[in-house]
Amino acid sequence: MALFGNAHTVDPGKAAQEYARLLGQGEQIYGAYQLIRDTLLFTDRRLILVDKQGMTGKKVEYHSIPYRSISHFSVETAGHFDLDAELKIWISSSTTPIQKTFTKGVDIYQVQAILTQFVAR
């Protein structure tokens, strides 16, 4: 399923090892999702978007979004014919949401619960 650009679940422990240099002292990853070469990391402090660029993917952009910057978000569950779930996140400084698509195997309610826990602080 990842061939079509849809996110799938990654073990948070493995993600913490792979991206340890990005994390602050005591920062924990609560959810991690891979989208072909890109990755979404939901920590207890922020959302990190890992964007591998170019043909080789050696150039990487790390976009850190503090949860306090998220004005609102929406999730759309998978249906019978549309097998993918969608997440949209609006940042307070932008009218265009960040959009990510998840395969049917990802629990979109878990993604929503992580965001609710940290955005509502």
Automatic annotation (TrEMBL):
Family matches, as InterPro entries: PHb, PHb_sf
Family annotation (Pfam families): bPH_1
Domain Bacterial Pleckstrin homology: start-end pairs: 3-119
PANTHER family named in the record: BHLH DOMAIN-CONTAINING PROTEIN, HYPOTHETICAL CYTOSOLIC PROTEIN
Name of the protein in its database record: PH domain-containing protein
Signal peptide: none
